[in-house]
Amino acid sequence: MRSSAALFNPSPPLVLLLPLLLFSHLLPRALAADLGSGDGYTIAGRVKLDGATSKESGLPAKPTNIKVILNGGQSISFARADGYFSFHNVPAGTHLIEVAALGYFFSPVRVDISARNPGKIQAALTENRRVLYELILEPLREEQYYEKREPFSIMSLMKSPMGLMMGFMLLVMFVMPKLMENIDPEEMRRAQEDMRAQGVPSLSSLLPRSN
Amino acid sequence: MGSSHLRPWTAMAIRARLGFVILLSLFFSATLSTALYEDQVGLADWHHKYIGKVKHAVFHTQKTGRKRVVVSTEENVVASLDLRTGFIFWRNVLGKNDHIDQVDIALGKYVVTLSSGGSILRAWNLPDGQMIWESTLPVSTLSKSSLYVLANMNVGKDNLILVFGGSSIHALSSMDGQIVWRKELSIDSLEIQQIFQPHDSDIINAVGFVGSSEFVVYQISYRTGEVMQQSKASFESGFCGEASLVFDNLVVALDASKSSLVSISFKNEVINFHQINLSDLVPDFSGKVTLLPLKFNGMLAIEIASSILLLRVKGANELEFVEKISHPFAFSDALPLSKEQQAFAILQHDESKIHFKVKSDNDLRNEILKETIQMDSQRGNIEKVFINNYIRTDRTHGFRFLVVMEDHSLLLIQQGEIVWSREDGLASIVDSTTSELPVEKEGVSVAEVEHNLFEWLKGHLLKLKGTLMLASPDEVAAIQAIRLKSSEKNKMTRDHNGFRKLIIVLTRAGKVLALHTGDGRVVWSVLLPALRRSETCGNPFALRVYQWQVPHHHAMHENPSVLVVGRCGHGFDAPGIFSIVDSYTGKVQNSLILEHSVSHIMPLPLTDSTEQRLHLIIDAKLQAHLYPKNSDSLKHFFNEMPNIYWYSVEVEKNKIKGYSLESKAELDTAEEYVFQAKELWSIIFPSESEKIAVTATRKMNEIVHTQAKVVADQDVMYKYVSKNILFVATVAPKAAGEIGSATPEEALLYAYLIDTVSGRILHRVCHQGAQGPVHAVVSENWVVYHYFNLRAHRYEMSVIEIYDQSRADNKDVWKLVLGKHNLTAPVSLYSRPDVMVKSQSYFFTHSVKSMAVTATAKGITSKQLLIGTIGDQVLALDKRFLDPRRSVNPTQSEKEEGIIPLTDSLPIVPQSYITHSLQVEGLRSMVTIPAKLESTTLVFSYGVDLFFTRIAPSRTYDSLTEDFSYALLLITIVVLVAAIFVTWALSEKKELKEKWR
Q1: What is the pLDDT of residues B610-635, one digit of tens each?
Q2: Does pTM surpass 0.90?
Q3: Of B97, B773, B968, the CB nearest to A162
Q4: Pure H helices in B662-794
Q5: Is B792 near chain A, with CB under 8 Å?
Q6: What is the predicted ipTM?
Q7: Is B96 on the interface with A (CB under 8 A)?
Q8: Where are the beta strands (DSSP E) in B478-620?
Q9: pLDDT single digits (tens) A172-210
Q10: Beta-carbon neighbour count of residue B280 at 10 Å?
Q11: What's the rounded Cα separation, in Å, for the pair B750 and B741?
């Protein structure tokens, strides 16, 4: 295996140093392009699901078969238990890698394999154009496929149509009499007389026991 | 006049509807997605897992631990099944071109698969299916590769896995997949036939043919791959390439003329050929011999004139006849019972019975085991058998048979009984349609209404507790059980909402199955006799299934039926096959092999007096055949004949042609159901710059409710609603391949909208730097298509909406009053339709496998796009996100109308995956079926798995949801009534007080 850590593009060494130090143990595999015995290059990388387990989505803590998809299904590879994956015999050009793992949202990755400069690979997330110095794919976010039930609260009950109905009734019961009190008694009497004149059916007249 | 009235009326109607929907959505504080709570899983949806037709099976039945069988299938699935129940422990679906060649178990803990023509070797962890390692081998794709897992030589040590094909042998470590050694046997045109390891030696023998007449034997070191010994001999009459290893030092091959057998014995660099005279064994032998693959020591199986002979090889030139077997039959591979003893099984069909025989090499005349079982005739013949043994309590051998049937189902048979069966033909659905269930008979109440009010109230109180999150875990389980148990959804009768239907599917094996939408169970299944291999039709091929008869008015007493169309062979000129199947019982009503070929099938919107749908079959010679063949259908057809147009897309020739029917004056009267096609127009795309990538049309049965769309400023736009719109996407030939094969400069994508009656191109748009794969969906007056943008290196989705401008001036009231509107303007085929086109593009994250659009009964409900993503999930995306009128800052009135501010990419809300936390592995297609309830669409998606659910794109505005709490409503009413009485009493009291004062 003639692997080369040739991903690094000619950018300032200081920027490079940090990832180098952090991931130096991963480097031989994390992103390597080598001219295999076949007629193409090898793209190797790693899918990293940080201990972040989606407890609430009801899924197993870690999906066992994470698929890594090259160019929309041209070839499909699987991530190993440690997250490493690779594609062999990939021709030079610009490729697209997608990760399908239930419960996680991954951005597709654009991978450029340079033909002029054999073994040089550049990678960037297409969703946010972040350049990757190693082909370590991390989910952008976890996905919750279910709506969460709101815990029981008085507010939610109040907001329901029935709650609103009750609220309105209470309002009428307790606030209206208060409003009535402020009305001029003279006017009140007049209004009541008007009502009687019109013969508005009162509740008492509707019920069998009337006075 | 009608149309002039239409404008204010429709405008109002739309307003009202919009207002209603907005009100509702406000009321329920709806998001744009139709989300699901976790406890609602399984209420309206079901998900069935399948694996496909099994190609190879390896048993793993150790004394300790779970007993399982590892299988690989034609759907590129590698799976581990529970041997007791047939449930899937795990499975992995490989890529669509990654066909599995072989599967085996190494080290007792890894499942090893060889795929992609022998170039990829993968190891999977046996307990959970996690991939352990993957290795790519440089193998020439021309020759077939095989896998050979060496038997456990040194316990505890790494074992080698050998992959051989052509002239090379690779030895890989089974621990990590690293290549230990690799041997390129430097002889041109060498085909290694077999590799084997003689007992207890460090040597591997490889035998093969060079060219057509030379036979070679290599002895290779197990550890280093060095060739220890090599011998070669040529045989003058040549070989045809088929050979069978009989003993460690004897190979039997077929000679070049395929008429006689040659035994080849080799020992210590000496190779001897013996021609075997078959006429000694078979007196009246003539014709060709086929060597059947039987991996059994000292045995040979040959096929002569459709009967199979089992032969025992006694020596280099001595064969002994053992048994004659007739079709249909199946052999298993050899199964070692002990160090010296091997066994194999022969299965034979006899009408509906299957005879199982197990023979061992100690005594070939007699059987160790002989069983007969009754088999469902709808499963067809046996195709494959795999055997496994177990030790009974009395220390004799018992056998299990894993049987693959003609309909692709998988069965485990033990002690003369079917232990379990899997309907794996459902992993390869070709086409589907639906059928209504029978109407509930009057007087016979099938509905099991809740027994009494108390029970009913208790159930609803429980539900209320659940919705208010007050329920204990036990109660939650009880709620779930109540919901799932409700027999309502699984009844065999039509329901008011139209949720219960039969989904009738046609599988690649030629089996038709009816699935109930309630739980996906198989109601009936039939293996169509017309689609089975027979003498008249050697290679039948299932094409489509259509609704044939849907009785509702005239023929109420008759059952509906479906039409299954097939083809005898894969060529376009192969004769067609017709089968009509009763939708309720699965009985084949009629079945025939057509005299003509089938290249295009057109269900017409016409029925005859018995409600049989008229179908027009266009054959390869461009003749149209009308079905059903009766005078009544002919009468109906003649009325509509001038209105029948169709088109054909010839992808290879880059051509689209439009046709109409010619009256059959020149044809003789004997063929009164045959019509001649007349070419009307053709569009030829320049092959140096364009290549047809995809075409799409509207669904024939789609219903458009409103012809017009009211835009923000009280303006009306008329949709260009035509059934004859064809969407065509072409790509530059250079960029016709996969992503990564072209640069943005050489990629171009053209989208066309074509009227299929006149052949006129209504609209054409070019996307620079875009390439396929293109997926498109057409509905009402819009097209949505998905493609890859090479410049941005992201997927993109575009929408094109097409509006009718000729009616656009129909809104001036004064013109209307003066009678100057253009309703009287002549409609002509030759006038250019005045259309206006709006389009917009957005980024979309995922690759797409398939796209569909929701369909509702009346077309009122807003639409959702269903997108089958590369991760085998189905995403529902509101059409409002794909509205060309979206802008970055919508005006107030546009906001009121519900226009979403423009974003450069389409949102992916996890809650709007209709498959929620499930995957429809190997997703191929989504089918939408309108329910009777206007708000609801039934969605059936299939691939290797099946998934069914119902969705409501604008929420269920026309019915109460499942979790509507009747109890809460009741309590509210009671409380209100009580409050009324209390207040009344209070007011009485107060009045009395007033009076006393």
Answers
A1: 888 999 999 888 888 888 888 888 88
A2: no
A3: B968
A4: none
A5: yes
A6: 0.82
A7: yes
A8: 501-507, 511-516, 522-527, 540-549, 561-568, 575-582, 588-597, 600-607, 613-618
A9: 878 877 777 777 778 878 877 877 776 555 555 555 544
A10: 10
A11: 19
